[in-house]
Specification:
28% strand, single chain, 5-stranded antiparallel beta sheet, alpha+beta
Length: 177
């Protein structure tokens, strides 16, 4: 089982509800909220409807996870960093119709600003989770579905934001899946 959960709390909605696209791009470029990846109950992040704030970069998370799906189309190994952490990554290894997933730690801090997704493992990775398997198609479909839902939710809050550069980039990446 693979699930993506997100929440745009009222605090985040209040910030963006009346912005035009250029003000959004100039002042924010991002929507803050809560974000969770759930791989067979191994969870990264959290979503709790009763907590009225969140500091996860929702547009950035959706862009990253969509790029991961695109990278999986041509690579059997993909790892991506967990945002707002120094050394933690999610590692995906494809085996036919399954993806083996685990959280790993980079013990030697090899990440650079340019390596948001890697296709060869670092030797210095150490396991943080036991490996769990998810269905490849389930992963791809969940990313597609939740990204489209997020875009619809943003449009419901403020349709002007769909014209913003950051949301437009997300739409274009998602259309390639």
């Amino acid at each position: 089982m693979f699930l993506i959960k997100y929440n745009i709390p009222n605090e985040g909605i209040d910030d963006i509800i009346e912005l035009d696209e250029s003000s959004f791009d100039d002042e924010y470029g991002e929507i803050y909220g809560q974000f969770e990846l759930n791989f067979n109950e191994y969870k990264q992040g959290f979503v709790h409807e009763e907590i009225p704030f969140g500091n996860e970069l929702l547009i950035s998370w959706f862009k990253l996870i969509n790029k991961v799906v695109l990278t999986l189309n041509t690579n059997d190994y993909v790892a991506f960093p967990i945002m707002e952490t120094d050394d933690y990554w999610i590692e995906l290894i494809c085996k036919e119709d399954l993806i083996s997933v685990k959280k790993v730690k980079d013990n030697h801090h090899k990440r650079t600003l340019y390596e948001f997704i890697i296709t060869k493992p670092f030797e210095e990775f150490s396991d943080e989770w036991k490996t769990t398997d998810i269905k490849r198609l389930e992963f791809i479909n969940e990313v597609k579905l939740k990204t489209k839902q997020f875009i619809k939710d943003v449009a419901t809050i403020n349709k002007n934001l769909l014209k913003s550069q950051s949301l437009n980039e997300l739409v274009l990446i998602n259309q390639k899946l």
